[in-house]
Amino acid sequence: MAPKRVPMAIGALLALTAALTVAPTTTTASSFAYLNVSPVEIDTTPAGGTSTDTLYVNYATGNRTFDVTHENKGTCLSTHFEEDIRGVPVSFPVSERQVSWNGNTYELKNIHYHAKGEHKQDNQPDYPAVEAHLLHQGPGGAHDLLVLVVLLDVNNSPSPTNSAHDDLLVTPPNECDPAINRNVNLRGLIPTQPASPAQAGSWRYVGSKTTPETHGGSDYWYPVQFVIFKQRQTITPTTLTMLRSRWSGPQFNAKPLTAATPTFSETP
């Protein structure tokens, strides 16, 4: 009897599943993060102990201008889960949007939002409402990335005050529409940072991007340094409703947790 033929679509899915379950045998730059594919559950009692990496946030004070867009990664006829609402810094010097990581300078390229938290603390039953990723690029170029992660809860007070995140996300453009300028308190996008290496508490690990630059892209597999702030910030219910209205399904535009267990470290 001739063997049954597997339909092409199913065959491709089986091949992808096999690729994702067989660990690479080398530790090249592209395979290193493959072992630690983000997002992951946050180890709040990290085996890596106290981090010795130094982080200085050198953002300018006051408002700065961002181009806010619905980042399109498919067609304008449908919204894809790999898309996001993001702000790209414009009209202010690179020197005003930099951080120093272990003595190397990283430039803020964009801040983008996942309409449900992607990382979850191991001691918490629920995900944060929203997760903001401030993506920075270092001297090594497009694959030298540092992401500052801000976990956002909903401000359910009777008259909630807008945060910097609300100011950036207010009435964003629809998919494929032109960008809209927003003036935002740059430093307000992250928890308060003292001017010393002993930064606000954070969990740290090396993982990967959670979405590729292009739909179906392969740039997941490069190492990305994550710094997840312990101190959370807020958004209003109105902002949350707007953000989640762009995507369907329980995950919205958030990638589900992977089974990876990278070594975490922390700062108090």
Mean pLDDT: 84
Give the topology string: H per helix, E per strand.
Answer: HHEEEEEEEEEHEEEEHE
What share of the residues does DSSP label as strand, in percent?
25-35%
Query: Alpha-carbon distance between the termini?
Result: 65 Å
CATH superfamily membership: Alpha carbonic anhydrase
Q: If you had to describe this structure to a student in words, what would you say it looks like?
A:
By secondary structure, the chain is mainly β. It has a single domain, classed as Carbonic Anhydrase II, CATH 3.10.200. It is 12% helix and 32% strand. The chain has helices at 8-21, 29-32, 164-169, 237-244, and strands at 41-42, 55-59, 63-71, 84-89, 97-101, 104-114, 120-121, 130-138, 141-154, 180-185, 202-207, 224-229, 233-235, 265-267. Strands 2, 3, 4, 5, 6, 8, 9, 10, 11, 12, 13 and 14 form a 12-stranded mixed beta sheet that branches. It has a two-stranded parallel ribbon with strand order 1-7. Strand 8 and strand 9 (141-154) form a beta hairpin. The chain starts with 7 loop residues before the first helix and ends with a strand. 33% of the residues are buried. Mean pLDDT is 84; it is low at 1-33 and 195-199.
